[in-house]
Structure formats: C-alpha cells, structure tokens
Amino acid sequence: MTFVAKPKAHHPKLPRNELGLTRRDYEGAVSTLCAGCGHDSVSAAIIQACHELSVPAHRVAKLSGIGCSSKTPTYFLGKSHGFNSVHGRMPSVATGANMANRELYYIGISGDGDSASIGLGQFAHIVRRRINMTYVVDNNGTYGLTKGQFSATNDKGSTSKKGVPNLYEPIDLAMMAIQIGATFVARSFSGDKEQLVPLLKAALKHEGFAFLDVISPCVAFNNHDGSTKSYEYVRGHSSAMALADLIPTRDAIEVDYAPGAAEDVAMPDGSTLRLRKLREDYDPRSRVTAMDTLMRMNEKGEIVTGLLFLDDNPSDCHEILATVDEPLASLGEAELCPGSERLETINAAFR
Ligand SMILES: Cc1ncc(C[n+]2csc(CCOP(=O)(O)OP(=O)(O)O)c2C)c(N)n1
Ligand code: SF4
Ligand SMILES: [Mg+2]
C-alpha cells in the first residue's frame, strides 16, 4: 500500500493549541476513500477534537479492523501509534494494548460490518469488559470495501442500489452497548460536525468505555433513494436528544442556555461536560430511558442522535481488575516477578 504524505507547509496564522500545534499537525496521509465518503468527515472531526483538546499525538494509540472505515486511522494523527488488525478483531488488540499500558488514549475505529457482523462477539465482550477507550463505528449499513453487501446494521426494508430490500432486522449497536455496560454511548452523523466534535471530545475524556455510533453514508453503494443510511434520509429523519459540550478547565463557564435546559457534569480531570437537554424529559443518566427512547424512535423510523447514555461515575477494566498504574513496560524485574515462593503458592492453587 502506498501512502501519500500531505505537504507540510501551512498558513502561519492557523490557530495553535496549548502545545503550540495547528490542526494540520494532527493530520495523517492523504485519504484514498471515495470523494464524499462520510468516513473522511469522521476523521476530520477526530483531528479537530484532538487539536482542541491539545492531545499529544504520541499519547494516542489508533486501532482498527478491516474495511474502508478501518483504513481511516491512516488519514488522521500521523504521529500516533497505530495497529490495523484483522476483520472484526480490533477489540482483542485494543484490550491487550490497554491492559499493558493504561496511560495512552485509545481510539478504536471500526465499521458496521467489522463490529456488527463478523466482529459482533468481540464487540459485545469489549463493551462488557469496559476497556477504557473511545470506540467509533463508522456506520454506513453496508460493506463498503467489498462493494455494497448489506451489513447487520442495515434496516429491514432498506434497499440496495439495485432496489433489492433487506429482509432482516437491524442490530442497533448503541442499544447493545447501553444494555451490556458501556458508560458513555452516543450516536451522531458524519455530516454534523457541530454535534460530532464535542461528543468525540467528551468520549476521549471519559474514564471508561465510550461508544460512538456515527451514521456515515457510503456514497458509492448506500446513498440512493430507499437507503436509510443516505445523507438525505438521515438529514430528514434525525432527532437530537441530549447534546454535549466539553468545557476544559482553562475556560470560564459561560451560561448561555435557558435555565433548566443545560446541566453540568464534572469530569475526573476537572473539565466540565455540559449536557444540553433538547427534550425536557430526557435523562441521559438512565439506561432505561435511553433504551426506551431508542426503541420508540426506531419504531417511528427516526434516528436519535446526541449523547444517549452517560454514567458520570464510571468504572473501567483497570478498576475492575485492580491493575497497576504504570505501563507494564516500565516495571522492573522486582515488580514483575513475584518470587519463587509466591509463584509456588500460585501454581499450587491450580493443582
Ligand atoms: C476474515 C475476513 N472475512 C471477510 C473479509 C472481506 N471484507 C473486507 S472488508 C469487509 C466488510 C467491511 O465492512 P465495514 O466494516 O462496514 O466497513 P466499510 O467498508 O463499510 O467502512 C469484508 C467482508 C476479510 N477481509 N476478512
Ligand atoms: S466504498 Fe463507500 S465506504 Fe468505501 S470509501 Fe467509497 S464511499 Fe466510503
Ligand atoms: Mg460499513
């Protein structure tokens, strides 16, 4: 595979973040995806979120499976660690890396085929193990890379480019994630940067498993009349619930929403997650409300976007397993080797 590097020159007045970097410093190679592919907009949103959060690129590990979506980590954060794994197997690699070094930001990029079809088992278990990461699914309802077969997130009755209807019920990954223990679940649209960037920032700051289902139209195979994952369909059928803005500690909190419409949640690093309730009765801190809302809106053919569920006191895999704070690679022999006597006791327990 050949990677085309982007020219380094940029306008001297481009805004710089706390690290003195411009958003161009967070780019990757030139994208080889189809022009207009939603996945490129998701990559652009990740670049903006990391730039605005002043995330040091060397503290990020990007992980993916196989698919057009899984190719995208090449197109953002070119200076970060990266591992393009096997189809549907990104969760295993992410779990191993995360257990060995909890100090990095983990960004997993997957597709609806990668996570809801071949990788469904892996997806379910990474959610319930609460691996501390941001897990993004670029959801186009199709296998883009292999030329447009229906994926398991494709809606029943939605048609292929040739007009053939999908016969099966869709898997809703956001609903699954809420049910089996994710502590941050959001849905957004690749064409809605205003909503997607704050959600990504909040997900990156979340101390637990953060899942983002991003409807990301495939312009080559699933953007026609009859598709429920096309730009036109999503624009006409989405309904925003609780939106999120992440307010870093350095910024003064501006009160610019009507009383009762916004609620602030403290994040562990001192920043604030401001929840904007667009529906008075929507409480994103209730799994029951989130599931009920998703089911009711799905029945009406509406796509609910925004922050669907948030546990503001989350636990992650490291808390559950009481792991050491330091990366395993930084531990010496004395910490890693429990000694012959202790080893003998452990072995004896298994006999
Ligand atoms: C084990 C295995 N089975 C099948 C394939 C063929 N294959 C490659 S990508 C893909 C589907 C990708 O769909 P999705 O994850 O939705 O990504 P998209 O291209 O739509 O972004 C398939 C079936 C493969 N690479 N490996
Ligand atoms: S085939 Fe579809 S998913 Fe793949 S790059 Fe083209 S538009 Fe994007
Ligand atoms: Mg897909």
CATH superfamily: Thiamin diphosphate (ThDP)-binding fold, Pyr/PP domains
Catalogue the ligands.
thiamine diphosphate, iron/sulfur cluster, magnesium ion
State the secondary-structure class.
alpha/beta
| Total strand segments | 13
- For the largest sheet, list the strands in their spatial order: 2-1-3-4-8-7-13-9
Number of distinct helices: 12
For the record, the count of structural domains works out to: 1
CATH topology: Rossmann fold
CATH class placement: Alpha Beta
Shape designation:
globular
Query: Could you report the average pLDDT, rounded to the nearest whole number?
Result: 92
Helix content: 25-40%
* H/E series: HEHEHEHHEEEHEHEHEEEEHEHHH
User: What fraction of the residues are assigned to beta strands by DSSP?
Assistant: 15-25%
Largest sheet: 8 strands, mixed
Task: Indicate the CATH architecture.
Answer: 3-Layer(aba) Sandwich
* End-to-end gap: 50 Å
Q: Gyration radius, to the nearest Å?
A: 21 Å
Which stretches are low in confidence, meaning pLDDT under 50 for 5 or more residues running? Answer: 252-260
Tag the structure with descriptive keywords:
binds thiamine diphosphate; 30% helix; Rossmann fold; 351 residues; binds iron/sulfur cluster; binds magnesium ion
Would you give an account of this structure?
The model is unreliable at 252-260 (pLDDT under 50). This protein has a single domain (23-321), classed as 3-Layer(aba) Sandwich (Rossmann fold), CATH 3.40.50. β5 and β6 form a beta hairpin. The protein starts with 37 loop residues before the first helix and ends with a helix. The chain has an eight-stranded mixed β-sheet with strand order 2-1-3-4-8-7-13-9, sandwiched between helices. Strands 10-12-11 form a three-stranded antiparallel β-sheet. α3 packs parallel to α5 (120-129). It is globular, with a radius of gyration of 21 Å. The protein contains twelve helices and 13 strands. 30% of the residues lie in helices and 19% in strands. By secondary structure, the chain is α/β, with parallel strands linked by helices. The chain binds thiamine diphosphate, iron/sulfur cluster and magnesium ion (MG).
